[in-house]
Hints:
By secondary structure, this protein is mainly alpha-helical. It has a single domain (22-202), classed as Four Helix Bundle (Hemerythrin (Met), subunit A). Helix content is 74%, strand content 0%. The protein has helices spanning 22-42, 48-72, 78-102, 106-131, 142-160, 168-205. It is globular and about 60 Å long. The two termini are 35 Å apart.
Amino acid sequence: MRNRAETAPCTRGPNARMPINIPNSLTILRILLIPVLVVVFYVPFDRHLLVAAAIFGLAALTDLVDGYLARKLGQMTAFGAFLDPVADKLMVVVALVLLVERHDTLLFTLAACVIIGREIVVSALREWMAELGERTSVAVSYIGKVKTTFQMIAITALLAIDPARDGNWLLALCYVVLYTAAVLTLWSMFIYLQAAWTIIRDRDNSL
């Protein structure tokens, strides 16, 4: 998950048009795919789970491409910086909620709670650090990017699997990837909290 930083201060008035460029259009597409994913996941037609997995995979691909294009084309905007992480979190949380119903086990629910809980904590932390003018101190880390890769792979595969039909070995492999993502999730959260704690301690000591 990446934050596309604004390249220049916003000087436009309240009636200025929303900056819709190629990267932002891909981010909006990712959000529009979320209700499509939910409908396809529940409508019982042939191969609907594979189609749901393909929709999520397409959304994950736009997450990879929009940030690259924003930097490559010089189309980084404040709107994109806000919407991109929102779209990422919505996509992942909705997919995990769908999967918790189908994979109703302690193992899966625990991993889903860890991932969703981390997103809430880090989002709140980034917002608070931004109020202190220290947003860059909790920028996306390399571990966070690796976590996102494992997370997207695991969710895409699990969306395609029917636990009542598919082999246990395939499900077990997906769980291994998902738990790897969950461990990396906690690790990246610790990195963010460690960076924030240094700033919190210094500010409290200066009072």
